[in-house]
Amino acid sequence: MGGDANAAKNVGVPVRRVKVSLFMFTAFCAWIFAMLQICDVGSAAADRGLQKEFEAIIAAVIGGTLLTGGYGSVVGATFGALIFGVVQIGITYTNVNSDWFRVFLGAMLLIAVLFNNQVRKRVTEAR
After folding, report:
1. Which end of the chain is more exposed for a tag (fewer CB within 10 A), N or C?
2. How many C-alpha atoms does 35 have within 13 Å on its Cβ side?
3. Rounded distance between C-alpha atoms, residue 116 and residue 63, angstroms
4. pLDDT tens per residue, range 35-72
5. What is the Cα–Cα distance from 111 to 103, expressed in whole angstroms?
6. Could you give the CA distance from residue 68 to residue 51 in angstroms, rounded to a whole number?
7. Three-state secondary structure along the chain?
8. Where are the domains of the chain?
9. Is the distance from CB of 108 to CB of 82 less than 8 angstroms?
């Protein structure tokens, strides 16, 4: 429904139903995740996903989302998450010290931001 609920309502979007549906879908996804945790680990903990925001941002940026906003796609974020997951598993298999993992994540983010900026500049110059 966007940032202006009144404008969305004026064009025919059922704002209240959309809000309630999104909250219900979020709760459903949380329930699915908790069930998968219980099946995998044997217990569910509310703090198990703590401090994962940085990794989610990195995955989205690797997928082509600009930190400045205005550009990004679900498909790109999905591919970014897949690339991030493969790199994360690869780092685990190389037995690198876990303290260096965050440094590597920061380097991946920096490279992705620089690459995205270069692509954006080329696209705007071509127009």
Report:
1. C
2. 6
3. 9
4. 988 898 888 777 877 778 888 888 888 888 887 777 77
5. 12
6. 22
7. CCCCHHHHHHCCCCHHHHHHHHHHHHHHHHHHHHHHHHHHHCCCCCCCCCCCHHHHHHHHHHCCCCCCCCCCCHHHHHHHHHHHHHHHHHHHHCCCCCHHHHHHHHHHHHHHHHHHHHHHHHHHHHC
8. 1-48, 51-127
9. no
User: What is the residue whose two structure tokens read 């699915």?
Assistant: 32
Task: State residue 64 phi and psi, 5-degree precision.
Answer: 110, 0
Distances (CA, A) of 118 to 6, 104, 106, 115, 122: 38, 21, 18, 5, 6
The predicted model scores a pTM of: 0.62
AA identity, residue 43:
S
Q: Which residues contact 51 (CB under 8 A, 6 or more apart)?
A: none
